[in-house]
TrEMBL record, chain A:
It is found in: Cell membrane; Cytoplasm; Golgi apparatus, cis-Golgi network membrane. The gene is yipf3. It is a multi-pass membrane protein. It comes from the Eukaryota. This is Protein YIPF3. Belongs to the YIP1 family.
From TrEMBL, chain B:
Its main location: Golgi. The gene is yipf6. InterPro entries: Yip1/4-like, Yip1_dom. The chain crosses the membrane at residues 80-99, 111-132, 144-166, 172-194, 206-225. Residues 68-220 form the Yip1 domain. Belongs to the YIP1 family. It is found in: Golgi apparatus membrane; Membrane. GO terms for cellular component: Golgi membrane; trans-Golgi network. Keywords: Membrane, Transmembrane, Transmembrane helix. It is a multi-pass membrane protein. It comes from the Eukaryota. GO terms for biological process: endoplasmic reticulum to Golgi vesicle-mediated transport. This is Protein YIPF. The lineage of its organism: Eukaryota, Metazoa, Chordata, Craniata, Vertebrata.
């Protein structure tokens, strides 16, 4: 059913501004197309198979039977306990239902194949689409009084995050980064996925607070494609050690991809303060992340960072092994030398 | 007779019993051949351990040949095993062990890291291909990706030999050439095996993570320098 997603988004948004968001809620809507892009991603029910529905129905029957049984039990208690007994029974029933729902969720999460089937619609893309979305991620659109279309897709973002992991590994290796109590791989994966998932959920939370019209899926997709600029900048600047070049690329490429995300968010938010709050947070985080990735794993600044951190050796820190005079008593000397270099 | 031969053909892969053309054969041929064969196969309990191991090793060896000469055969997919990938992965990790800064118990690709990259990477690629609608089973894909590391393992061995000679500009050029060639080879071989199971319009999407995976491994091999 989710196959129709690609073309339908634009058509629905054309009917009226803001119309696309509550399309699913309009009872008499003539469109029978399930619009993946504007659908809340928590409602994955359309992809569940019949077996699961059957199971759910059976479980509901069980719950009903149990409730009936408890009712029989409490009938004589209820006569002299009155309202209190009824309340207890109600509470028990609610607790039972909550427990059943939790059990269903857990069993669904453990079923790998069910999970794959649920995720599959988000990976329903063509190479051409991915390419055009990558290019579009660098082109901010100046249309903020009308909700922009955001593709809800996870293939591109996921691959970009893995690419970023590979590039980070490269940067760490060339800069001779040493991480105590952990591997380079783990750190790179943690950084990239942490940023992607963490910032997406944070911005989604903020968007929820200020009532912006965006789903978690769209947020993940938006931020994931926003990492394309980061990948490009880091790939270039890890190999060409030119600070000036980095700053230019940082402002240009990083700025463009940030602007694109900001424009998309602006178009889906109403009001001055919410817009400033949401977009300010996102752009600051996004730009600073690029700055951090560049300087945290770069050759030249390595020595300076170490000497500044020198005396208090934290368990997790970077040590340049190419700097021979890196000893505790030579800290001041290196600091002076590196300051002279810059 | 022709019909009898026709009937025995399905077992051609299993049996090495050949019936020459000039001996007249009659009766029910296919069933006895099949049943005796099955008896043989199930009687591996009392065979020497050496034979068992050698048979497995031979199967692994045949698959190595398939990787070195990738001609869209389905042997690697049909009877998959994870022995070959394990062997290759351990070999690669051992060869990459002992990198530059071994003195301060750090640096160099550690055994565990190589191991994790290889297996985690293959699993991610497999899940990705399943999500994109591939019709390949989980372990088949793991098997193919694992076996296709072989050119890179060979490149690693060559690199170590080259590095014994010294680590100048010439040595780096040689290593770069070897690693690039084997990286291309790995990618090409795995695509040859995996491409058929994917929807034709999405091959590029499946190949990209494979490319990234072998690129990271190849890059690790290229930047490896032994401790003095």
């Amino acid at each position: 059913a989710g196959k129709m997603s690609a073309g339908s988004g634009g058509r629905n948004t054309n009917t009226e501004p803001w119309g696309s968001f509550d399309d699913n809620l309009i009872p008499g809507s003539s469109s029978a197309v399930i619009d993946m892009e504007n659908m809340d991603d928590t409602s994955g029910s359309s992809f569940e198979d019949m077996g699961e529905m059957h199971q759910r129905m059976k479980e509901e029957e069980e719950v009903a039977a149990e409730a009936a049984a408890t009712e029989d039990d409490t009938v004589d208690d209820g006569e002299f306990l009155g309202m209190k007994g009824l309340k207890g029974q109600l509470g028990r029933q609610v607790a039972d239902e909550v427990w059943q729902a939790g059990k269903r969720q857990a069993s669904r999460a453990f079923n790998l194949y069910a999970n794959i089937d649920i995720l599959r619609p988000y990976f329903d893309v063509e190479p051409v689409q991915v390419r055009s979305r990558l290019i579009e991620s660098m082109i901010p659109i100046r249309m903020i009084n009308f909700p922009q279309k955001i593709a809800g897709e996870l293939y591109g973002p996921l691959m970009l995050v893995f690419t970023l992991v590979a590039i980070l590994l490269h940067g760490m290796k060339t800069s001779g980064t040493v991480i105590r109590e952990g591997t380079l791989m783990g750190t790179a994966i943690g950084t990239c996925f942490g940023y992607w998932l963490g910032v997406s959920s944070f911005i989604y939370f903020l968007a929820y607070l200020v009532n912006a019209q965006i789903t978690m899926l769209q947020m993940l997709s938006l931020l994931g494609y926003g990492l394309f600029g980061h990948c490009a900048v880091l790939l270039i600047t890890y190999n060409i050690h030119f600070h000036f070049l980095f700053y230019i690329l940082w402002l240009l490429v990083g700025g463009l991809s940030t602007l694109r995300m900001v424009a998309a968010l602006l178009s889906r938010t109403v009001g001055q303060t919410p817009r400033v709050l949401l977009c300010g947070t996102l752009s600051v985080l996004h730009m600073l992340f690029l700055l951090y990735l560049h300087f945290a794993y770069h050759k030249i600044v390595e020595g300076l960072l170490d000497t500044l951190e020198g005396p208090n050796m934290a368990p997790m820190q970077r040590v340049a092994r190419n700097v021979p005079e890196l000893t505790l008593n030579a800290t001041m000397g290196t600091l002076g030398a590196s300051l002279k270099v810059h | 007779m022709a019909a009898a031969e026709e009937a025995s053909r399905p077992f051609a892969g299993l049996s090495d019993v050949s019936i020459s053309e000039d001996i007249p054969v009659e009766g029910d041929i296919s069933v006895p051949v099949g049943s005796t064969r099955r008896d043989d196969e199930f009687s591996t309990l009392d065979e020497p351990v050496k034979e068992t191991i050698l048979r497995d090793l031979r199967a692994v060896g045949t698959k190595f040949v398939h990787v070195l000469y990738p001609k869209r055969s389905s042997a690697l997919l049909r009877d998959w095993d994870l022995w070959g990938p394990l062997l290759l992965c351990v070999t690669l990790a051992l060869l990459l062990q002992g990198g530059a800064a071994e003195g301060d118990d750090q640096g160099g690709p550690q055994f565990a890291e190589v191991f994790v990259i290889v297996w985690f990477g293959s699993i991610v690629i497999t899940l990705n291909s399943k999500l994109l609608g591939g019709t390949i089973s989980f372990f088949q894909s793991l098997c193919v990706l694992g076996y296709c590391i072989m050119p890179l393992t060979v490149a690693m061995a060559v690199c170590r030999i080259v590095l014994i000679g010294g680590s100048g500009k010439v040595s780096f050029a040689v290593r770069l050439a070897v690693v690039t060639a084997s990286f291309g080879w790995s990618t090409f071989a795995s695509t040859a095996f995996l491409a058929d199971s994917q929807p034709p319009n999405r091959k590029a999407l499946v190949v990209y993570p494979v490319f990234l995976f072998y690129f990271v491994i190849g890059w690790m091999i290229l930047t490896f320098s032994p401790s003095q």
